[in-house]
Design a protein that fits this description.
The protein is mainly alpha-helical and 151 residues long. The protein has helices at 4-25, 41-59, 71-93, 95-109, 114-135. It folds into two domains: 4-59; 71-148. The protein contains five helices and no strands. Helix 1 (4-25) packs antiparallel against helix 2. The chain starts with a helix and ends in a 16-residue tail after the last helix.
Amino acid sequence: MAGFNDRIFGVVMIVLAVAYGWGALQLPEPFGGSEAVGPDTFPLVLAVVLGLSSLYMVVRPDPDNAWPWSRTGVELVIAVVVLVLYAALLQPLGFIISTLLAVGTLCWRMGARPRNAFTTGGIAGVVVFLVFTFALDLALPSGLLAILEVN
């Protein structure tokens, strides 16, 4: 049965998109009223994109392929573990340090030298933090760097 795995995964992702969208709608209304861009805007956009992409997987699946139980499969498992740890450590360590560790580890696993990989992770963390904080005026978790803030 061609595409069975994609269809199952697509249905699961549609359920996730609906739950994510519903969760976004539970966020409080922004200060400027319902017409302003608020905290629910970006999650709703992600939910719609995820839902449409998942629907496409259900309607037009790829042929089933064997799962790569070789080095590629191990690397995929490592990537998932890194991303789960990233989500878990984001609040306590802060955005910059968590991003440095996650991006650095993923770059290293993809073949970059450790020094270059973690330099890339550090630069990515700082740049994205600065863009979100100063250009978009959105707060990201400071974590351990909060002790460096001057009152």
